[in-house]
């Protein structure tokens, strides 16, 4: 889905939840769309938003990110640095996607495949627990860092 399609979808979600797609929210969402692979922190989102719309304050960006998280437009993730980062949820995704985190360079790669379907089935049947979502981050050494050691 392109940026316009995503904006229209989010505008509908906001409206259904009683919010409007204000210029500030749109600017924040556009920054997330333009930096989709970067897993930006709230401060980094704010830095990019300020370039486009200098009048927007940090509190507005935080509120917008929280609204987008509550509406499941974005997922709030935390890796080994303890900083909350924001990741756009993929269109039609049933679950949050998985990540590969390099312990040496800090690079984060996304895995689009849902690898835990069978695990969910076991959890639901064995523990009588209805799984709504899951998050999985593999911690290791990326291929670039491995190549540096060879």
UniProtKB/TrEMBL annotation:
InterPro entries: FUR, Fur_C, WH-like_DNA-bd_sf, WH_DNA-bd_sf. It holds the Pfam family FUR. CDD domains: Fur_like. Keywords: DNA-binding, Repressor, Transcription, Transcription regulation, Zinc. Belongs to the Fur family. This is FUR family transcriptional regulator. It comes from Enterococcus diestrammenae.
């Amino acid at each position: 889905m392109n940026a316009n399609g995503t904006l229209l979808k989010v505008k509908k979600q906001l409206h259904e939840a009683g919010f409007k797609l204000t210029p500030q929210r749109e600017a924040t969402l556009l920054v997330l769309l333009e930096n989709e692979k970067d897993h930006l922190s709230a401060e980094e989102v704010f830095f990019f938003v300020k370039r486009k719309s200098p009048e927007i304050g940090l509190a507005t960006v935080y509120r917008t990110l929280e609204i987008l998280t509550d509406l499941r437009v974005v997922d709030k993730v935390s890796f080994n640095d303890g900083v909350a980062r924001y990741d756009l949820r993929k269109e039609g995704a049933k679950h949050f996607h998985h990540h590969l985190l390099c312990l040496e360079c800090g690079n984060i790669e996304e895995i689009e495949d849902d690898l835990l379907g069978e695990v969910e089935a076991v959890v639901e049947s064995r523990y009588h627990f209805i799984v709504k979502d899951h998050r999985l981050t593999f911690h290791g050494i990326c291929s670039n860092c491995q190549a540096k050691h060879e």
